[in-house]
């Protein structure tokens, strides 16, 4: 893992001192709310429905056990004993007091964490594939580039007041687990025919009220030009992006209105001016940063796979968890273990302080003290010896962290919705819980296979509903909660935006509707087809008819 | 007849509060002073400004309420959730959480 140097630490520590002073000036009346609000937002502090909310950055979703323990400790001491992991690989506390927030930020700084750039019109916390550095299907570790981007973008003076927020995601694999095509910039690490590393650069994807799958503006950007090229994209956006209309201010609107070809030309022209300037990393710097991400010293265990196979034979529950939640690791004898934060009927992404501590302890025992957060609101232990999986699973069971539902219908993304969020028009969490309970039977979930269901409580789409195989969007109809269903979206390498299937449904009708859609799929699927494949083969009409009757 | 109360978030801890008739801010909507016409609502809002200027609360505003079974409740669901707590965490509802915290 990356460790702060004195520059990183000083920057974060100074920010805590600054914020302490700002809070004290707000409490004394020296600052009005209008003056204070942008300052608190620069430190990840929102005012939500019930209380303040603090959004803590977890850069590219990588966390040490020590950091996780600190998050648990803060949840217990300053909050109400839990936290919410988000689609941005961040953690949100729902109940911090303003008067405690300087202390909370100081506690975070003591373990090299902060809440910088988790709000505001700046480059937000960079996200990445949660299997970075361990996936068998990876070209190169995206965390190295994500960390380079983090350092470059942190308090970048030119990009601190962009037209709107800006999100960058990086993956090192062709199997996209970071939803790079629906980000402001998505980077896919690649090798060219000569074997050199570089990036496919995707710009102008996004969800929200105007969703787009981003176009590729460069098939191959040599690795050494990463920062100058990003800078060129940001400059074009910063100059031309619309500041007159918040709803048209994201880069996706600009790319769409300008056209991808013309936008690319503008970026390349800007890049020509700066490509050989000092913006790119000096020689050796990439290697220095990469040295923080060298793999741990894996142990060779000749019979790890055999031990795992025996445990699977002896315990069907364990076998199911392994088959669903465990992913191939690139090191012999190791596996990637996903920890679902979607127990049946639970709140997607929520973890109690006890669960966080349990995961931290398990990471120490079994995963070189490392933890990952996924954009699908789950946790990952990235390096578990195969013969330790059984012991890991047994402990997970006692903390309700063993649900074998990764990628299944109950593994939903759901935003906090109207239960917490002041922007929401409808609740998301109870809808997710009701669907989860309806499909509680795991045999049925496994028969259904991969099904990505995503729920947002408003058009801002924090719950990624546009990218759901089944998407659910909460809307307000004259004070009543209604839900619009979209079908056929994907946030993966085959990215697409879901299509609205018909009129919005009342709260009480949503679970039945999901079941109707799933039953229709089961009735018409062919061998090996996922829900999404069937939808793409047959189109909207059979599903629409199942939901609303024949036209 | 339209009934309105004043709600805001408390500056120090962000919690949802309501303006009571003695100009104090209560976590309980039941304690709020109810305005029964627009003139009374405007007067209430003017009194609430004092709480804002004195840094007790942030952004006070009027909330429509009605009486259901003798209880004052917001008419909009969003305000109902603010008054009672997240619908998905009954253990954290205002009543339960405050009671548990006080032992």
Tell me the quaternary state: heterodimer
N- to C-terminal distance of chain B: 40 Å
Query: How would you describe the shape of chain A?
Result: globular
| Biggest pleated sheet of chain A | 6 strands, mixed
Helical/strand content category of chain A: alpha+beta
**Secondary-structure element string of chain B:** EEEHEEHH
Task: Name the helicity range of chain B.
Answer: 25-40%
Topology of this protein?
The complex is a heterodimer of chains A (551) and B (103).
Chain A: H1 6-28, H2 33-41, E1 45-47, E2 52-56, E3 62-64, H3 65-78, E4 82-85, E5 91-93, H4 101-109, E6 127-128, H5 142-153, E7 168-171, E8 185-191, E9 197-203, E10 216-222, H6 226-240, H7 251-258, H8 260-274, H9 285-290, H10 304-314, H11 316-325, E11 326-328, E12 334-339, E13 350-352, H12 353-366, E14 370-373, E15 379-385, H13 389-398, E16 413-414, H14 429-438, H15 442-448, E17 453-456, E18 470-477, E19 480-487, E20 499-500, E21 505-506, H16 510-524, H17 531-538, H18 541-548
Parallel strand pairs in A: 6-7, 7-8, 16-17, 17-18
Antiparallel strand pairs in A: 1-2, 2-5, 3-14, 4-5, 4-13, 8-9, 9-10, 11-12, 12-15, 14-15, 18-19, 19-20, 19-21
Chain B: E1 3-10, E2 16-19, E3 25-26, H1 38-53, E4 57-68, E5 71-74, H2 77-84, H3 94-102
